[in-house]
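Hi Prof. W.,

I finally got the Purine nucleoside phosphorylase prediction working! I wasn't sure whether to trim anything, so I left the full sequence exactly as given:
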Amino acid sequence: MGDHLQARVLEGLPHGFSTAREPDLAAILPGAELVRVKQVHGRAVVEATKARDALLEADGIVSARTGLLLGIVTADCAPVLFADPVAGVVGAAHAGWRGALGGVLEETVTAMIALGAQPENIGAAIGPTISQPSYEVDQAFERQFAETDSHFFAAGREGHLQFDLPAYVVHRLSKVGVSRVEDLAEDTYSQPGRFHSYRRATHRGETTNGRQLSVIGLPASG
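And this is what came out:
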């Protein structure tokens, strides 16, 4: 059996955030096809109507089709799953700091709206991601953000800061009217027995190819 976490804000919809163990997709949405994209830390979003042989370059996926599981992979970046259960529209976004800063979250919401979703009906869940105590950055990193974003940075060791990626994701979503956001508050870096972490593996000189898979889909009607 696989292993996955779920969010209350997405209750009733097939979804899951994996741990380091491979998730059992058949247990999440039986018979569904997995739809993936080639993630490039950008802001492009695609609509999924079927599984593709060739992966499109994008960091967000949306769909109003049943029988599909939208999937993204992460290993410190924030996996964000979205759903408007009223309109029957779901989405998934890969939001590292670069993608979040570039607008991938807003673009995902915009793509969902184009399919009939309403921001006030969208619930969003942030899965396992690196937390502020584990996310050390330098001052050059902070300078890429707006001055009004300074509260997402806390003092760290000399010359360094600690960045709060999950809080920044919540902030960016609030700007487009998505207020029902749940952070699972699972730190990838500090739980080596439970989650893959690119940064932890780099610091330890280990292989960095481990990823978590996060998925969401729509159940068949009727």
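The first strand starts at residue 4 and ends at 5. Does that look reasonable to you?

Thanks,
D.
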